[in-house]
From TrEMBL:
It is an enzyme of class 3 (hydrolase). This is protein-tyrosine-phosphatase. GO terms for molecular function: manganese ion binding; protein tyrosine phosphatase activity. It comes from Hungatella hathewayi. It catalyses: O-phospho-L-tyrosyl-[protein] + H2O = L-tyrosyl-[protein] + phosphate. Keywords: Hydrolase, Protein phosphatase. Belongs to the metallo-dependent hydrolases superfamily. CpsB/CapC family. Its EC number is 3.1.3.48.
């Protein structure tokens, strides 16, 4: 299916701090389609509030959204689900049991941490996930202070098996300019594997993709742009493991 991929968003209605109802979900998906997105993975938080939605609730809501999209006459988009997993000592067991969901039933897991996480704790978590048979994808990598301007850490984590995802707001004027330049440089040099909207609604955090795509196509060579926008997300959805002896940027 042609179009772009969004493997991180919070647009399933009523499950977390994202879309509140089906009306908002449908409106947001129309924005996503206008932005060129054709494949969406819904990733509600697994730890939102005091009563996170269970995996069955996520799958049920996914089917409801698919039916709603069809009723709206949108036939050129496809949808999957997973969770944005707040990593804890219980996360691996919860993944094994199906309590929380990997991306589209693959080995890839969208994982997040406190923004002030220590690097050693982050590396330990990545190692634990890989040892357990999973392929961790770091959600909104631009938020973690321990990684800022630390190419050595980013390279070490990549070798350990981590996939880096940054949000598309790194490419707009809202993102702090110094940080934006740093992460855009990482994109150009091939350290970032994926972009995603992390969309929550239609206004404050909409599913904007076109600006980021335009920047990547302008500043990255054709092969790298294709990897970031197409082949890397396809690899995840097909559950294909990257060659850990080389970076995806090579």
């Amino acid at each position: 299916m042609e179009g772009f991929y969004d493997l991180h968003c919070h647009l399933l209605p009523g499950l977390d701090d994202g879309a509140e109802n089906m009306t908002e979900t449908m409106a947001a998906l129309k924005i996503a389609r206008h932005e060129g997105i054709r494949t969406v993975v819904f990733t509600p938080h697994d730890s939102y509030g005091q009563a996170p939605a269970g995996s069955e609730a996520v799958r049920t809501r996914l089917e409801e959204v698919k039916a709603g999209v069809q009723a709206e006459g949108i036939m050129d988009m496809q949808f999957f689900c997973g969770n944005e997993v707040w990593y804890t000592p219980d996360s691996i067991e919860e993944l094994h049991s199906g309590k929380v969901l990997s991306i589209a039933r693959s080995r890839y897991v969208l994982v997040e941490f406190p923004v002030n996480v220590w690097y050693k704790k982050l590396f330990k978590a990545v190692s634990e996930l890989v040892f357990a048979g999973y392929c961790p994808v770091l959600a909104h990598a631009e938020r973690y202070g321990c990684l800022s301007r630390r190419i050595d850490y980013i390279e070490e984590l990549t070798r350990a098996g981590l996939t880096f995802q940054i949000n598309t707001d790194c490419f707009n004027s809202i993102f702090p300019e110094a940080d934006g330049r740093w992460y855009r440089t990482l994109v150009k040099e091939g350290y970032i594997h994926l972009i995603a909207t992390d969309a929550h609604d239609c206004k404050k955090r909409p599913p904007e993709m076109a600006r980021a795509v335009k920047w990547i196509k302008k500043h990255c060579d054709r092969e790298l742009a294709y990897k970031i926008l197409y082949s890397n997300p396809e690899r995840i959805l097909m559950d294909r493991t990257q060659d850990r002896d080389t970076k995806w940027r090579k």
